[in-house]
């Protein structure tokens, strides 16, 4: 048994009632008797989200602390923003500092902030995870952060998914991701891999006639990465993007390509889904555009369709899905295509707590011959991708499981 498999087994032995008790009391064990005295370290999107969740529970954060000097001595959502040094001087011995810096594309790690706060004399500090467990439905689910006991409720599926990982690197990543979901251990996660996201050189081999279906094409970032990696060696590229703001940017990016490349790129203003339907999207024009309700002020109606019914996708050799938590729905709508063509799959597995195991299990149910890999393409849990590779596309075809 590998160390990673043994680690997963140990993590899953926790009694579920003990886990419920741990998640309910974890923040109070750090904060002590004055758990309502909270300073949020990070006044960006997560900080503002956390402040709103606290207010919903009747708790007013004392202040934001932030490393960005232009924010100092301003108000954000009615909360004063202080420099870390000033916040520590005022509240370092009387409040709990909750780290609310967690963003994709940043080299920041939670340990960096914990060290900074300790050096400033802050006596109580933690990541946002234990606070979110305490706040419950007011704050979670939030990407991979949800109540830890939900993991234990699905432990049989967790073990099955772990058994599908093809190499030790993937098994170690699975174990670390599971530990983060159960214990809020962000710094146990490995650093991002050096390879370009969706195109890792150690997982699958390229084809000169690659036929790509890009679900969640955004502004063309993956398309441009693909073109840099493959130097024009591909047959066609089908880009699905339902967000009208992102679609305009995508059209602009494609319009700048030379004619020979542009002729092989097809834009489809649809969202990949399990059925033909109309849903609402929060059209932010960012990588985080996601499904929402009609009451959202940014909501627009978008058309959804299964890949099985989109003619341009019918002979795909590579499918990428990074669609803000709708990956399982989209895969369900591509079942026939996946079973028939056995394309390489690159499926995001970080948007929802249980996608760590549900994405691999869904893939395996469509074609049992896939070899599965996990690779982190960003820090602290972001951009975790599950790759599914048929044996003939492995870097070393027919290679045995390590």
Protein architecture, described:
This protein has 402 residues and is of the alpha/beta class. Helix content is 36%, strand content 18%. A hairpin with a 2-residue loop joins strand 3 (75-76) and strand 4 (79-82). Helix 1 (3-11) packs parallel to helix 9 (168-183). The longest helix is centred in the N-terminal third of the chain and has 16 residues, at 16-31. The mean pLDDT is 94.
The first-to-last residue Cα distance is 12 Å
- Average pLDDT score: 94
What is the global morphology? globular
- Judged by helices, strands and strand pairing, the structural class is alpha/beta
In order across it, which strands form the biggest sheet?
9-8-7-14-15-17-16
- Sheet-strand content, in percent, reads 15-25%
Major pleated sheet: 7 strands, mixed
Are there runs of 5+ residues with pLDDT below 50, and where? none
Total beta-strand segments: 17
A few lines on this structure:
The chain is 36% helix and 18% strand. It contains 15 helices and 17 strands. Helix 1 runs parallel beside helix 9, helix 2 packs across helix 6 and helix 8 crosses helix 15.
Helices and strands, with pairings:
Blueprint lengths: L2 H9 L4 H16 L6 E4 L3 H12 L6 E3 L9 E2 L2 E4 L1 H8 L4 E4 L10 H10 L5 E3 H8 L13 H5 L1 H9 L4 H16 L27 E5 L5 H10 L5 E5 L3 H12 L3 H4 L2 E4 L2 E2 L4 E6 L8 E2 L6 E7 L12 E4 L5 H6 L2 H7 L2 E5 L6 H12 L4 E6 L7 E6 L13
Helix pairs in contact: 1-9, 2-6, 8-15
Key traits:
alpha/beta; 402 residues; six-stranded mixed sheet; seven-stranded mixed sheet; 15 helices
């Amino acid at each position: 048994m590998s160390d990673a498999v043994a680690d997963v087994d140990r993590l899953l032995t926790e009694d579920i009632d003990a886990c419920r008790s741990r998640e309910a009391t974890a923040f109070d064990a750090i904060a002590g008797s004055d758990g309502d005295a909270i300073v949020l370290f990070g006044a960006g999107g997560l900080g503002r989200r956390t402040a709103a969740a606290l207010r919903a529970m009747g708790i007013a954060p004392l202040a934001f602390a932030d490393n960005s000097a232009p924010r100092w001595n301003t108000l954000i959502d009615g909360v004063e923003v202080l420099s870390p040094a000033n916040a520590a001087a005022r509240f370092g011995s009387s409040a709990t500092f909750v780290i609310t810096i967690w963003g994709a594309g940043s080299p920041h790690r939670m340990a960096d902030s914990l060290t900074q706060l300790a050096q400033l004399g802050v006596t109580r500090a933690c990541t946002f995870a234990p606070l979110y467990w305490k706040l419950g439905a007011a704050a979670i689910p939030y990407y991979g952060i949800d109540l830890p006991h939900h993991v234990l409720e699905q432990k049989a599926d967790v073990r099955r998914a772990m058994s599908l990982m093809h190499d030790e690197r993937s098994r170690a990543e699975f174990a670390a991701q599971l530990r983060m979901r159960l214990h809020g251990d962000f710094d146990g996660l490995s650093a991002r891999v050096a390879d370009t996201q969706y195109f890792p050189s150690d997982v699958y081999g390229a084809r000169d006639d690659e036929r790509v279906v890009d679900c969640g094409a955004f502004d063309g970032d993956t398309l441009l990465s693909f073109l840099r990696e493959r130097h024009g060696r591909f047959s066609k590229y089908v880009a699905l993007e339902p967000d009208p703001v992102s679609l305009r940017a995508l059209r602009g990016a494609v319009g700048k390509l030379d004619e020979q490349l542009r002729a092989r790129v097809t834009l489809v203003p649809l969202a990949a889904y399990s059925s033909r339907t109309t849903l609402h999207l929060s059209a932010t024009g960012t990588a985080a555009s996601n499904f929402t309700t009609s009451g959202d002020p940014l909501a627009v109606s978008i058309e959804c369709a299964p890949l099985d019914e989109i003619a341009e996708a019918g002979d795909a050799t590579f499918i990428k899905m990074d669609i803000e938590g709708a990956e399982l729905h989209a895969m369900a709508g591509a079942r026939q295509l996946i079973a028939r063509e056995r394309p390489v799959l690159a499926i995001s597995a970080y948007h929802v707590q249980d996608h760590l195991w549900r994405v691999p299990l869904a893939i395996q149910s469509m074609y049992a011959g896939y070899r599965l890999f996990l690779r982190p393409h960003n820090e602290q849990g972001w951009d975790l991708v599950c790759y599914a590779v048929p044996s003939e596309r492995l870097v070393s075809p027919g290679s045995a499981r390590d």
